[in-house]
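[Q] Does anyone have a clean structure-token version of this?
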Amino acid sequence: MVKHDMPALVRQHMRYESDDAIARFERLVNEGFEPAFAAMHASGSYPGVVGTDTQFRQGNHKKLDKTPAMIRRELVKRRGYSGNAVYHNQLGEWVESVDDIKRAARRKNKTVEDPDTGKVLHQGHYVPEARPGLAESVVHSRMVAYATENPSLVATPAKIKKLREDVINKHTPHWRKKGTVIE
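[A] Here you go.
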């Protein structure tokens, strides 16, 4: 059996606990339990399980009582509401479980954290904003207009390609050109 420095262990593990809890801790350590386990058992603070529906619903059962009756009826009618839904402000949706939160976060590509633990339930990813260039019909009509004015611009395939690039560069608005940042 390992000999422990009891006052140091009490200071380390049971600093803010009651005298009864400290007595239980000392008894468990003397019986051979690890100090961390003895502290957990003596103080009654077992590790919590996060990310479960039970943990999500703790405290949420009172929120529906504050919801107006008209909204409750609408929830029952449209969603098949079971009585456990809460409005998630970050997602802007009614959710009933952790799976609903993850599903909505995935669909909306948002990063969502558990407010109690700070654990990330879903990490959104960066999607660059699409910057479509000119419509193909606009490019074609501009090319036809330039070709009717000067037929030598379309004499060879290389010149047609060059004309196309020139039309796109000239007629694309600056906020739609690649490489510009939209703020």
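[Q] Thanks! Anything notable?
[A] The two ends are 67 Å apart (CA to CA).
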